[in-house]
Design a protein that fits this description.
4-stranded mixed β-sheet, 24% strand, 4-stranded antiparallel β-sheet, FAS1 domain, alpha+beta
């Protein structure tokens, strides 16, 4: 069975995320034992960032600035959370120590305002959910 990192790398709609994980040196962690849950922004989500070149600039500075790693680890939760495990009002702690808020409306799950699109893609060390927006950690 593939790891969650391999699942993300194989999904064309998660190409930008996969490139970011590599630039931030998070590949070894996400190929590790886990379990982890990745809330994976789709490629189009990165285009919504303002200004539009925000993510590209983070990637260029990945060796000198922790911003890329902080942003991407804000999309990773320790433990395996399937779609059915999310509850309205729930708080989730990311691997970078920040908190995410869950809301459930009409059977759809939203994490900090990002809607889960594709859900429950399980790997050997966790699960991947695609989301429609990049969550930005508060400073």
């Amino acid at each position: 069975m593939s790891t969650i990192l391999q699942l993300a790398q194989a999904d064309k709609s998660l190409r930008i995320l996969a490139e970011g994980l590599k630039a931030a040196n998070l590949e070894e962690t996400l190929n590790g034992i886990g379990p982890f849950t990745i809330l994976a922004p789709v490629n189009l989500a990165f285009g919504k960032l303002m200004p539009p070149d925000t993510f590209d600039n983070m990637m260029k500075q990945s060796g000198t600035s922790p911003k890329l790693s902080e942003l991407l680890t804000y999309h990773v939760i320790k433990g395996k959370k399937l779609h059915r495990d999310f509850r309205d009002g729930q708080k989730l702690q990311t691997v970078n120590g920040k908190e995410l808020s869950v809301s459930v409306r009409d059977g759809e799950v939203w994490i900090n305002g990002s809607k889960i699109l594709a859900k429950d893609r399980q790997g050997s060390n966790g699960v991947v959910h695609s989301i429609d927006t990049v969550n930005l950690p508060l400073a």
